[in-house]
Amino acid sequence: MRRHxxxxxxxxxxxxxTPVLIGIVPFGMVCGIGALAAGVSPVAALAMSAIMFxxxxxxxASQLLAAGAPLMVIILxxxxxxxxxxxYSAAMAPYLRPLDHRxxxxxxxVLTDQAFAGTIQRxxxxxxxxxxxxxxxxxxxxxxxxxxxxxxxxxxxxxxIPPSWQLEFVVPLTFIAVLAxxxxxxxxxxxxxxxxxxxxxxxxxxxxxSMICAGLIGISAGVVVDTxxxxxx
Amino acid sequence: MSKxxxxxxxxxxxxxxxxxxxxxxxxxxxxxxxxxxxxxALKHVPAAMLTALVIPMLVVPGSxxxxxxxxxxxxxxxxxxxxxxxxxxxxxxxxxxxGTLWLLRWVAG
Lengths: 233, 109
Description:
The complex is a heterodimer of chains A (233) and B (109). Chain A is mostly helical. Chain A folds into 2 domains: 2-167, no CATH class; 183-233. Chain A is built from 12 helices and no strands. Chain A is globular. With 109 residues, chain B is mainly α. Chain B has a domain at 47-108. Chain B has helices at residues 3-28, 36-43, 45-58, 72-87, 90-108. In chain B, helix 4 packs antiparallel against helix 5 (90-108). The N and C termini of chain B lie far apart (45 Å). Classes of the chains: A mainly alpha (233), B mainly alpha (109). The interface between A and B is large, with 94 and 70 residues.
């Protein structure tokens, strides 16, 4: 484990992830506030951040719990939201495979939208594996730690923040910051448009099943377009 | 089942699911190639799922059926998206999005 550790790269990872915190801190606070509003104890709200470690899944779980959705619907919705991690895992896999299993197990735990979006370019640019792994670990651990502190802050001071600040709006904004750069690819843009229209049209479905359906419709549209384009080439 | 029991079961189940998903191709399927159709479908997951997550957060539930006025959230989201698209910068995008929302609220009084 120590053999692959590079201290300078670890701190570079911390440095490069720091700007992302402006979105992550309020987002983590919103997760803490939202969990309490859904009727969850402070300890459980903290455990959500420590163990689930996915703002999207935490928000969805809190909303569905507040709406009185059954356990299996909550788990299924979180599972669909978490499909993104399969993609990130697949994209990181070729770079991390040479590492020993302890490194891979640890780095997998801190794999998030922001850690992925912030580090994948470095993995593509450099083949210094120990440095890259340490860089990823530094950024990922910072995100995890700040996520816990932000959730705790939300639990402690959430009630003090005036509703007029509309702090909860940082949740869609953090996802937009990850999503928008993907749309430079024309097929990805089409997938997003189809998923977005489906989300609006299906808005009336109960228990936010519209989110799962809209996502799957968008993915299917992408596969169909790829197939058609493949035949023309 | 109480909410507290439900949420602890969700924490354990989703915590495990998320970790397995994160670990999947990095460790569990490391020696196997991704089936082609699954690989093609997976490629589209981020654009599709992030959009499906974001859209309902911008639209007030039930507001679509009625005549929509200009929604400050949608304007702010578009500003944030354009900045993220052009600069790839998280900081500027989120700052501009919140700033636009606050400005529009202030203008509207």
